[in-house]
């Protein structure tokens, strides 16, 4: 049976959710095809959305916060794509939460699209599908939210697909704070202390986070913001949006955003080649990396060349 033809980027941009669903399905069914690589590269070059990552331990309030942010974006008629990455078992490879959207949105709203998917072993946790879904949505919508469970090292995985990384911390739980103090994790751009309606615990958590951040030498040149938010009451959401806009403005100054995305693309290619051909494959790939093409075409060409050499 022939696979359904891929939509073009122009068709995707017209905004029909069924067309995006078809392209997302093709990421799996047409993996490795030239047409898919070309579509993803075209989308990559057309990336317009502000991509916001939301991470933190289970129960911290990520989905509630994501729903509140989406409601605010939609109230301003901004369109939103959401990639919700679920922790998954290596054995089954399936999403623990299935395809159930935990983020509350109106299914009849054409301006918001939610896709849940399993984390797998790429980029230490993000799947090829998550990368490709983000790339497609970034070309279509005004905003893209990537939600992923994580604490400690896995924060840096999501930083490979977002422009602005928010890490959520629950008042009264020192978990994330320990990682920050220990310098285990890459610092988020914004630390969100959730459930601010919990009173003193929340203000104490903010003071703790600010203390931990003061230890940071600030190599990145951007000082992480700390925001106290209650997604249920709405308190602090204005501050959070202001902090997101501030980071965005910092990225837009000079070539920072372009540099950040370009480093991310290099990491996707490297990671994909390493996942399939190991470290030796990665060394061999250095000699054959084609120039002047998008990351998905580059990855495909390197993979084909290596496979041909190995006779597989
Ligand atoms: P996630 O696992 O990080 O996505 O967390 P959820 O968004 O599912 O929230 C976990 C629990 O915390 C739920 O029972 C929420 O109702 C609750 N919660 C989320 N945000 C707030 C908040 O701002 N204040 C309070 N008091 N509870 C919240």
Helix fraction, binned, reads 40-55%
- Major sheet: size, sense and barrel closure? 7 strands, parallel
State the CATH superfamily name of the largest domain.
P-loop containing nucleotide triphosphate hydrolases
Overall mean pLDDT score?
A: 85
Secondary-structure element pattern, one letter each: HHHEHEEHEHEHEHEHHH
* SSE class: alpha/beta
The small-molecule ligands in this entry are:
guanosine-5'-diphosphate
* Gyration radius, rounded: 20 Å
| SS elements, strand count | 7
Poorly predicted parts: 89-101
- CATH domain class name of the largest domain: Alpha Beta
Question: Total number of helical segments?
Answer: 11
Shape: globular
Beta-strand percentage range:
5-15%
CATH topology of the largest domain: Rossmann fold
Features:
312 residues; alpha/beta; Rossmann fold; 3 domains; seven-stranded parallel sheet; 11 helices; 7 strands
Kindly describe this structure:
This protein folds into three domains: 1-46, no CATH class; 48-253, P-loop containing nucleotide triphosphate hydrolases (Rossmann fold), CATH 3.40.50; 259-310. The protein has a seven-stranded parallel β-sheet with strand order 3-2-4-1-5-6-7, with helices on both faces. Strand 6, helix 8 (200-214) and strand 7 (225-228) form a beta-alpha-beta unit. The chain has helices spanning 9-13, 17-29, 34-45, 62-75, 128-140, 155-158, 175-181, 200-214, 237-252, 256-286, 295-310, and strands spanning 50-56, 80-86, 112-118, 143-149, 164-169, 190-193, 225-228. It is globular, with a radius of gyration of 20 Å. The protein contains eleven helices and seven strands. Residues 89-101 have low confidence and may be disordered. It starts with 8 loop residues before the first helix and ends with a helix. It has 312 residues and is α/β, with parallel strands linked by helices. Guanosine-5'-diphosphate binds next to helix 4. Residues 56, 58-64, 194-195, 197-198, 230-232 line the site of guanosine-5'-diphosphate.
């Amino acid at each position: 049976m022939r696979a359904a033809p891929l939509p073009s980027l122009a068709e995707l941009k017209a905004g029909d959710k069924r067309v995006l669903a078809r392209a997302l399905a093709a990421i799996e069914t047409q993996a490795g095809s030239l047409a898919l690589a070309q579509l993803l590269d075209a989308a990559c070059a057309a990336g317009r959305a502000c991509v916001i990552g939301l991470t933190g331990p289970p129960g911290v309030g990520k989905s509630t916060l994501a729903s509140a942010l989406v409601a605010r974006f939609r109230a301003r008629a901004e369109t939103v794509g959401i990639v919700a990455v679920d922790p998954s078992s290596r054995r089954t490879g399936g999403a623990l939460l299935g395809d159930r959207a935990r983020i509350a949105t109106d299914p009849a709203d054409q301006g918001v699209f939610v896709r849940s998917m399993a984390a797998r072993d790429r980029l230490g946790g993000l799947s090829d599908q998550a990368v490709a879904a983000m790339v497609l949505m970034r070309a279509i919508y005004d905003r893209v939210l990537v939600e992923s469970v994580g604490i400690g090292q896995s924060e840096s995985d999501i930083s490979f697909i977002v422009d602005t990384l928010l890490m959520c911390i629950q008042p009264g739980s020192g978990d994330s704070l320990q990682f920050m103090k220990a310098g285990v994790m890459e610092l988020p751009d914004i630390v969100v202390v959730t459930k601010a309606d919990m009173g003193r615990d929340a203000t104490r958590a903010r003071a703790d986070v600010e203390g931990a951040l003061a230890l940071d030498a600030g190599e990145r040149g951007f000082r992480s913001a700390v925001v106290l938010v209650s997604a249920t009451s709405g308190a602090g959401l204005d501050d959070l949006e202001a902090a997101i806009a501030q980071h965005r403005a910092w990225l837009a100054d000079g070539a920072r955003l372009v540099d950040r995305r370009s480093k991310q693309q290099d990491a996707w290619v490297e990671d994909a080649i390493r996942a399939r051909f190991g470290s030796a494959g990665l060394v061999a790939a250095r000699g054959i990396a084609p120039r002047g093409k998008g990351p998905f075409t580059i990855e495909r060409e390197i993979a084909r060349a290596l496979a041909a050499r190995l006779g597989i």
